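ARCHIVE CARD
SHELF: 3
SLOT: left
DATA:
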Amino acid sequence: MVGSAIVRRLQAAGYTDLLTATRDEVDLTDAAAVRAYLQAQQPDAVIVAAARVGGIEANRSYPADFLYENLAIAQNCIHGAWQAGVGRLLFLGSSCIYPRKARQPIREEDLLAGPLEQTNEAYAIAKIAGLKLCQYYRQQHGVCYHSAMPTNLYGPGDNYHPQHSHVLPALIRRFHEARAANAPTVTIWGTGLPRREFLHVDDLALACEHLLLLDNPPDWVNVGVGQDLSIRELAELVAEVVGYDGDIRLDPTKPDGTPRKLLDVSLLRSTGWEPGIGLREGLIRTYTDFLERKAEGTLRMV
């Protein structure tokens, strides 16, 4: 989802010589393969948007896989880029790198100020390592390697797997299926009280382009909208967009995850960037994409 959005943005901006190797062409967990590819292609800049991602259930079920694969991707891409003489690299992380009980809104300096959320600790540790690798390669080797930490993302090309998807695409799929089946109720995990912030992936793509054009970007910077809502409010909004008018029930026996995760985006805004897509508008666009891909048989369910 993220990589595709970045490619769309860069193509719209007039960039024509883009390298977009698929997983079949380059296994990013294979250090030798990554090094060989980057040395052969000699890119001017690298954007590390690849990751193994998933929601609470996927993170709880496969913590070793999440830590190993994301750590391998980070170190192979960053070290491989340096070996190939690449002077510019942007590493994409996640707002889950911050402590579970971080002050709200979360500032960049809150990194490593407390324990992480247990349900996604493995993923967060890998992303923190990638962020720190960029910071230290920049410090030690003089390359402009820096990071962006986006909040929860959604948009075209999202993953709608029944167990492995994030909360927003999971809600879209479940409310769509409930509407089609005339189901009287939909049950969502947790208490509905945790608050989350959501950024459309096309806004993230604009932020990435913006950061790559800065002469002296921050070592890492939050990317978000600076507003959040409860999971219950999100579910009601998704149900409205999808057209589901049944009852929404909560299952408090299921985990909530981090109580609140709102980013302070003042640092990025101080460089001249602002998000442009509101949540309702973004949900309408995303549900339209969901329907189109479902009709084509190309809906992502992995």
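SLOT: right
DATA:
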Amino acid sequence: MSDGSEVKQAPDHAAEIQRECAAGPPGRLVRVLLIEDNSDDADYFFKALLRGTDPCEIERVETLAAAFERLGRGGIDVAVLDLSLPDSSGVETLARIHAQFPWTPVVVLTGRADESMGIQAVKEGAQDYLVKGQVDTRLLVRSIRYAIERSRLDRQRGDFVHVLTHEIRNPLTVVRGSLETLADSDPGTWTAAQKGNIDRALRNAGLLSKIIDTMLEISRLESGNALIQFGRVRAAGVIRPMLQDFEAEARKRKIRLEEEIQEDLPDICANEDLVLQVLMNLVQNALRFASSTVLVRAAANGAGAQISVIDDGEGIPDHQIGLVFNRFVQLKRRSRGGFYKGTGLGLALCKQIVELHHGKIWVESEEGAGAAFHVVFPYA
């Protein structure tokens, strides 16, 4: 790769590279982690950054595991990530970094034939993407500056949402408590219209409370400060008690709850409470849209256990499949009681939790033929 100027051999030693970077013009030192296993590509990007005007400090690792170790020690301003590494490949590589270090800005590198993967990576949370062979110093420096600034603004927006939801929660608690007191008072003192207004106000206060709780949970997971304990979790030990808890609701809706659990399924490495939260969201979702049956299936899938929640409802239109896990997206999907309008946050939270476990979540559906939500958690 060339930008038209003569390129000499890049320095072999990190210390020499860092001395050259530090000799740049005064300003804030930018610490870059280059995650790239190809030595020729790494040399090129080293030289491109050295020719830039920003003082920088560059470190290089060759595997995703090494990247996790270095990012865990802190002090990195931006990661430049090759999506094809010896121990991970594709957009999943970005997802694993984003789940573990959500506030680290990432610029992804793709080959000329894989530019669509770069676009997908930006949709999945990368700040920018660069195509190998089409990168010069100006473009690389601009991309890194942009990634850092965009990440800073995203963090500010996240902090604002967290503070705002906390501030809303306190007065909402007071309003909801007052409404509950009114609703519990002597029913003879209210007209039917007044009682209906109180009931509607209570339902909407409950919906708003649910939105706030979910936003706070998403914010907590994204912050990277959540203290989450992982351990060995038996899938059947989570699924069966959960389904028992849903039996009354299923009977009320005239829905059959069925299970198919592989008995010799190995334990998964997970936080049991968070796994339960994901499955409860998926089962509640399935019960809303099923015609007669909801099936929960657990079976081996490569390096992890796949848990599927399948309903026999009307399904999801093809053009809406890609929107399912986006925040505040409310699909116009028909339930047994008409079109259901939810908060648009439950499935987004499921995605956040699954990515935190380095797992995978997706949906398969055909309009008119139900929907199947699949989750894979890695084995312990």
